[in-house]
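Narrative of activities, Objective 1.

The group set out to show that a structural description can be obtained from nothing but a protein's sequence at a throughput compatible with the screening campaign. Below is one input-output pair from the validation batch, recorded exactly as produced.
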Amino acid sequence: MADTFRTARLLRSRTLSEQTQHLEFEVGGAEGFEFTPGQFISLVAEHDGREITRAYSLASAPRGHRFDLCLNRVPGGFFSNYLCDLQEGGAIRFQGPLGFFTLRQPRRDSLFIATGTGIAPIRGMLEWLFAEEERHRGREFWLIFGVRHRAGLYYHEEWEELARRHPNFHYLPTLSREGAEWTGLRGHVQEHVRALAARHLDRHAYICGLKAMVDANRALLKELGWERKSIVYERYD
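Output recorded for this entry:
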């Protein structure tokens, strides 16, 4: 089905921040929409007489006919503004699922490292892991989520609730430019990854965000002795 165009309609749109939107879609057809958490879809639309395509990570685990997206408006950009302005009931065309940024087997204790909308595919992975006890039993999972300001901590309440319900999930938000009222972690994500990764070489790391952050954390983990195959990543630029 990855090469076939399908249609999905917007069920709900929710503002996460001034520039970021959470979108929930339902796919038409009787067969549902199956994908592996962490994958993406390729959307297509007409603009100025030509066909435009853009890839967006799926921000949810499989739910029958439904999937979520999380994206930023790009000033002057067509596709991100087209999606953010889409009205409920509006339709999109897409191909997919695509991509290999997915959970590796066998599952191990894992670090999930994200900045900005790099949280989207990781949200799908964590949603899937904690949907059933057997998927996460006996493992520890850390989410290190870094942004500049508090408003950028997308799905913050979800992560806090997940940590309350599951002692083996550890949520570590870190802000690089927040004021004195923020009492949590500060700085860039790699500053906090080092302490979690230094003495544990038998974990997986899933990293998603802009190139500079991804490259910095890959280099750090390799420096600490992690195997290359244990470091799974996707870059957004």
